[in-house]
Specification:
The chain is an alpha+beta fold. The protein has five helices and twelve strands. It is globular. It starts with 13 loop residues before the first strand and ends in an 8-residue tail after the last strand.
Length: 243
């Protein structure tokens, strides 16, 4: 099960900014603002596309926080939880962030006061998700998949998957075997609250919001808050160019 996180009971809304860029937007040299620890991670990535997405994500992160903190991107205090391959954090700043990439897209979500998680996934319209649905979906979500035309199931499953991964990022867990105990449907409605089956009120309150559809990709955002989640999406292409 997903571990319980401390929750203050604060009803304030979570105001989240999301920045999107495509790999074609990136310019050579954006890695110059990375830390030594980030360079270790970059040098361990064998896939060139993944390496570029990593550089873009860290460039977006550093430049966005630098603008808000009034400092140089190189001086943004990025730390990696769990070593060079861990999740980036910004200790001492109050900022909570989440990064995700899929295909040509790289996204950054940033807010204060609430842990967040974001996920983007490509949609393979020709894929049948039913064989793996019992491992990922609750009984209610499986019924929802069965109830739509075969050609719509891949998109619906991808929506459910982005929501679940966003929740696990927000709560600090990776992908686990108990995804089929995490309820994030119905897929047709947003915002929606994540719930666990059987009902377990020890889990944190998690709000889910579907983000704007990208070409051939879907994205979702989760926030640990009892208030509303207010999201503004931005063009982040300037954040992956040399200024």
């Amino acid at each position: 099960m997903i571990r319980q996180l401390p929750y203050s009971g604060d009803q304030r809304d979570a105001v989240v900014d999301v920045y999107w860029a495509q790999r074609k937007d990136a310019e050579a040299g954006i890695d110059r603002i990375l830390s030594d620890q980030e360079r270790v991670r970059l040098n361990s990535i064998k896939c060139l596309d993944t390496a570029l997405s990593f550089q873009m994500g860290r460039s977006m992160l550093r430049r966005t926080v630098a603008q808000r903190q009034g400092c140089h991107p190189e001086n943004v205090p990025v730390q990696l939880s769990g070593g060079a391959r861990g999740k980036p954090t910004l200790p001492g700043t109050g900022w909570e962030i989440s990064l995700s990439h899929s295909g040509h897209w790289v996204g950054l979500a940033i807010t204060k006061g609430a842990a967040i998680g974001m996920d983007i996934e490509g949609v393979d319209e020709g894929w049948d998700p039913l064989p793996i649905a019992p491992l990922v979906c609750t009984p209610h979500e499986r019924q929802e998949l069965w109830g739509v035309a075969a050609g719509s199931r891949a998109r619906m499953f991808t929506r459910l998957w982005t929501r679940k991964e966003a929740v696990l990022k927000a709560t600090g867990q990776g992908i686990r075997h108990d995804l089929n105990q995490l309820q994030v449907g119905p897929s047709c409605r947003t915002p929606v609250d994540a719930t666990w089956t059987p009902d377990d009120r020890s889990h944190p309150i998690v709000r889910l919001v579907d983000l704007q559809d990208r070409p051939e990709a879907l994205a979702s955002l989760a926030a640990l808050t009892a208030g509303a989640v207010k999201v503004t999406e931005h063009d982040g292409s300037a954040l992956v160019r040399i200024n």
